Amino acid sequence: MIKVLSNHFLNLSISMNIVFLPFNRSFSFLPNGMRRAALIVKINNNGKINYIEAAAPDNYSLSTLIVPSLGSQEKDEKMIRTLLNNIVNASGRWKKDFMGEFSHIKLKHLKQTHEICAKRMYKCL
Fold first, then answer.
1. Which residues are 13's β-sheet partners?
2. pLDDT more than 70, % of the chain
3. DSSP 8-state assignment for residue 21
4. Domain chopping of the chain, boundaries
5. CA 100 remoteness from chain centre
6. At CA 72, angle to CA 92 and CA 94, rounded to 5?
């Protein structure tokens, strides 16, 4: 979907990183024992935002999280680490009690084409 987003909306500056989730709980691992990863995407569209999506090859339904930048790379990285730790501790849920600390948008996963998902995401930027 990110590739479709970058191909259709050329005004966006996009960078991606894949990170492993902290390994202190069972959600950190997939059923086959491999570490669960998360995709971190930084999007610049006249203001930076961060997009976080945990891998769900086990058909675990998890919403994509979009959070605005806190203004510096250091603050953004600290926020992302906090969010990833919290999602692991909450067994894969973006729980309201810790999400209230951050301005955010949750995008539910729907059975749609990548093009439709990219357009939904672009509307949130």
1. 44
2. 89
3. P
4. 2-124
5. 16
6. 15
Distances (CA, A) of 37 to 8, 42, 53, 64: 26, 16, 9, 13
| Mean pLDDT, residues 34-51 taken together | 83
Q: Residue 50: enclosing H or E segment and its boundaries?
A: strand 48-54
What is the average pLDDT across 74-103? Answer: 86
Does the pLDDT at position 74 exceed 90?
Answer: yes
- What is the distance between the alpha carbons of residues 82 and 91, in angstroms, rounded to a whole number? 14
Q: What is the gyration radius of the CA atoms in the chain, in angstroms?
A: 14
Do the beta carbons of residue 92 and residue 83 sit within 8 Å? Answer: no
Structure tokens at 53: 């999506």
Give pTM, 2 decimals: 0.77
